[in-house]
Amino acid sequence: MPEVAEEDVIQSIAEALQFISYFHPADFIRHLTRAYEGEESAAARQAIGQILMNSRMCALGRRPICQDTGTANIFASIGVGARLRTSRSLQALVDEGVRRAYRDADNPLRASIVLDPLGARKNSGDNTPAILNTELVEGERISFDVSAKGGGSENKARFTVLEPSESVADWVVSTVEKLGAGWCPPGVLGIGAGGSADKAMLLAKQALNEPLDMFELRRRGPASKVEQLRLEIYERVNALGIGAQGLGGLTTVLDVRIRTFPTHAASLPVALIPNCAATRHVHFELDGGGPASFDPPDLADWPEVVIDQSSSAFRRVDLDNLSQAEIAEWRPGETLLLSGTLFTGRDAAHKKMVETLRAGGTLPVDLNNRAIYYVGPVDPVGTEVIGPAGPTTSTRMDRFTEELLAATGLRVMIGKAERGPAVIEAIARHRAAYLIAVGGAAFLVSKAIRSSRVVAYPELGMEAIHEMRVEDMPVTVAVSHDGQSIHQIGPARWKGRAALETS
After folding, report:
1. CATH number at residue 385
2. Given this model, what pLDDT does residue 55 score?
3. Does 241 share its domain with 370?
4. H or E element at residue 76
5. For site-directed labelling of 234, which of 98, 228, 312, 486 has its Cα 20 to 30 A away?
6. According to the model, what pLDDT value does residue 502 have?
7. Residue ranges of the chain with per-residue pLDDT less than 70
């Protein structure tokens, strides 16, 4: 067999990561389109529509689907007869591929990996190191599964050890119901059952790289116990009514993939890892004939989705003239189009601001009667004002919210997913509001941003505070001034409806 050159590995990894940054897998788009066509919740349908619009824009413009361009997850299966010509470790080759991909001048990807997780947490600057798993298999080829896993969905990974007589489906459904919307549904659930704690988690992550076939499975019916379990979990999770972005609706999961492994007679380890609306992965093989090539999907797979923002049903908001009286008119689930000035701030910026306030200092930005957007954007290219700039999970800012609202006069927060009970109480107490942008529509959101400049904490990199001017940025009212939450109202309204629609 010809030798596989180290450059073939490096180039293939780099091109794979670039490819998945702007192309959803075709099977994912087909399943998402079916969900869009069948969704009856107006808010959820609009959210799925934005995800589909964003996906098509990214496929055409070759820019990232999501601002969180993810941790590079690499599964390498090395044939025992394969020959790799290198003096370096496979980790070093993979990391060089990741480095090239994330520093690509034509499509730079956001570096999110921090070194020394228990210490300084300094950003590596190039998204290395990758999470690499290897196994020796039969054959003479080297195959790779490459995915980019966002932090929001990864943070919702869960593990348990059930008693052998307990129900896997019951545990999964109960767990998903408690996860909230931070994993950016609709997406895919990866489940690993058996083995040990580490093996089950690995199986769940590998399951997320499998092709989606839920519509075919529902049509023909299950042919095994595993397929029967997939169907049961799919139907029961969708019957929870969580819906796209947690807004309430018929579709929360597009598919459920399960992998199993033999286990101890006294144990039933089960792992759950969700994949978000920015599901991204690709498979390729190297046989010594050169680097891998990747064929773009057919754009005909993407539906033509048009969201008319001229509708009188959408309330236009001037962020430069916010008032408590106006905010009091906003209702949970209502769509707003924001124009004017907003500031950005994520975990690190919030921590620094609160530390400054506790020390009696003055903040570098005036948040009185202003809005803050929880985002860490991708760097711009060409004539772009900013790269993809979708929201991050808001619950990570919960611990700072009360102090910031009380000390600054901040009126509006924008992010994704639900807020905790204490924050909802604080929002009501300070007569503020919490809005959500669609996670998984980062490129679409960025088109509403007309200018952007770093105004504080430049040392934080993508977590620095930006001042942005936006025009008709679409958001949904998630928590109103009186503490009503769409993430409670929406799922409660739609719970059980998916089961009725498919019965």
Report:
1. 3.20.130.10
2. 95
3. no
4. strand 71-79
5. 486
6. 55
7. 1, 308-313, 498-503
